[in-house]
């Protein structure tokens, strides 16, 4: 992650903005790892009310920060805890959220590497 932190701000933003939103519509182009992580918490089978609530959170986050909310799903036991994190992060400043997004990418990367390298 040192390379990411040393990268120009514009490159960091491009990396952040390349991530998918949580709960994308059916048929969205997710990587296998993202699909597995979102499926573990049931994002592909949200009720209409849950999907609407998540879409509103995603829209509020994107309107405030101009990027998707990146959450390391492996760190969350339930969708409720993910929603709590998303709501809490809406109070961040732009700079705080930029760092939170980079930290989330690092956590996602570590979790994926741990899964790949596990015996």
Q: What form results from the Cα inertia axes?
A: globular
Poorly predicted ranges? none
- The tally of strands reads 0
What's the helix count? 6
SSE class: mainly alpha
Tell me the radius of gyration.
Answer: 14 Å
Strand proportion: under 5%
Q: Would you list the SSEs in sequence order as H and E?
A: HHHHHH
Terminal Cα separation, in Å? 24 Å
Percentage of helical residues?
Answer: 55-70%
* Biggest beta-sheet profile: none
Q: Tell me which oligomeric state these chains represent.
A: single chain
Averaged pLDDT = 93
Give structural notes:
The structure is a single chain. The chain is mainly alpha-helical and 119 residues long. The chain contains six helices and no strands. Helix 4 runs parallel beside helix 5. The longest helix has 24 residues.
Helices and strands in order:
Elements: H1 2-6, H2 9-17, H3 32-40, H4 48-65, H5 79-89, H6 94-117
Helix pairs in contact: 4-5
Brief account:
The chain has 119 residues and is mostly helical. Helix content is 64%, strand content 0%.
List keywords for this structure.
119 residues; mainly alpha
């Amino acid at each position: 992650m040192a390379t990411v932190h040393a990268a120009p701000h514009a490159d960091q933003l491009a990396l952040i903005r390349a991530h998918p939103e949580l709960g994308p519509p059916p048929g969205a182009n997710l990587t296998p790892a993202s699909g597995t992580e979102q499926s573990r918490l049931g994002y592909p089978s949200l009720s209409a009310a849950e999907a609407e609530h998540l879409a509103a959170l995603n829209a509020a986050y994107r309107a405030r920060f101009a990027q998707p909310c990146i959450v390391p799903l492996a760190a969350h036991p339930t969708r409720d805890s993910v929603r709590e994190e998303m709501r809490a992060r809406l109070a961040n400043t732009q700079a705080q959220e930029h760092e939170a997004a980079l930290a989330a990418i690092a956590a996602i990367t570590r979790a994926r590497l741990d899964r790949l390298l596990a015996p």
